[in-house]
Each structure stands twice: as structure tokens, then as C-alpha cells.
Specification:
By secondary structure, this protein is of the alpha/beta class. Helices cover 55% and strands 14% of the residues. The protein folds into two domains: 4-41; 50-133, abc type-2 transporter like fold, CATH 3.40.1710.
């Protein structure tokens, strides 16, 4: 059963809600509203998109063309293919965070600002795509 002190606490709380009806709102409804608001705010994180620039290789090869097409198809990458100087300008403006250059020996060179955390994440993501394109099996 309920003890005498518990009954007195319940009566005290009931009297408080009778005197201050707004207290009932703050005690009962406000936590529920915060729970719903924070639940909607942090429910589905959208995948991060990265702006990357593709620097055309000096000697074009079928491998570099296929690689650029594979990177272009990825929905998380905003693929840009301007000239060499415009790539650096766009990188300084923040439109792209990574410059990808394909070489003749089927390797890739990344140019990025290592102090920019988004550029480091973009480099890891693109490197994963390049390795999968090269035949890596997970």
C-alpha cells in the first residue's frame, strides 16, 4: 500500500497543479514535445555529398575515362571537370574539396587541403571508390 508520506506528496503535487495550471504543461507535455522535436531532427542523416574536380590526364587512356565515368555516376559526388587553373580557383572558393588526377600507370593523385576535414573525408571516400573500381573485393 501507499505510505502516509507518499500520499502527502501526491496531494502536494496535485495542489501545485491546481494553483499553477501551467506547471502541468511544463511537467507533462514539454518533455514529450522535446522528445518529438529531437527525434525528428536527428532521425535520418542524409549522406554527405562531396564536390570533386577531375583533372584530365595528359595522355588519355580508356582506364582514366572509365574511372571518370564511375566517379561521375556516384550520387554522393558532385563531379566537376574544368581546366587546371579553374580547379584551383574552385578549390579556394570551397566549391570542390578534392582534385583527382589519373596517371598513365593506372594510379590516382589526390590534391586536397589536409586541414579541411571535409576534404579528408572526400579523399577517403573517393579512394574507396577507386579501389573498388580497380577490383578490390570487400
Amino acid at each position: 500500500m501507499l505510505s502516509r508520506s507518499m500520499i502527502e506528496q501526491i496531494k502536494c503535487r496535485w495542489r501545485e497543479f491546481r494553483r499553477e495550471p501551467s506547471a502541468f504543461f511544463w511537467v507533462v507535455f514539454m518533455p514529450v514535445i522535446w522528445m518529438l522535436a529531437l527525434g525528428f531532427a536527428f532521425s535520418k542523416p542524409h549522406p554527405e555529398t562531396y564536390g570533386i574536380g577531375w583533372q584530365k590526364p595528359i595522355t588519355a587512356s580508356a582506364w582514366s575515362d572509365e574511372l571518370s565515368q564511375a566517379l561521375r555516376r556516384d550520387p554522393q559526388l558532385k563531379f566537376r571537370e574544368p581546366d587546371g587553373e579553374e580547379l584551383k580557383t574552385r578549390m579556394m572558393r570551397g566549391e570542390i574539396s578534392l582534385i583527382v588526377t589519373s596517371t598513365a600507370d593506372h594510379s590516382v593523385i589526390y590534391s586536397l587541403d589536409s586541414n579541411n576535414p571535409e576534404a579528408v573525408r572526400a579523399q577517403k571516400y573517393v579512394d574507396d571508390l577507386v579501389q573498388r573500381f580497380g577490383g578490390r573485393q570487400d
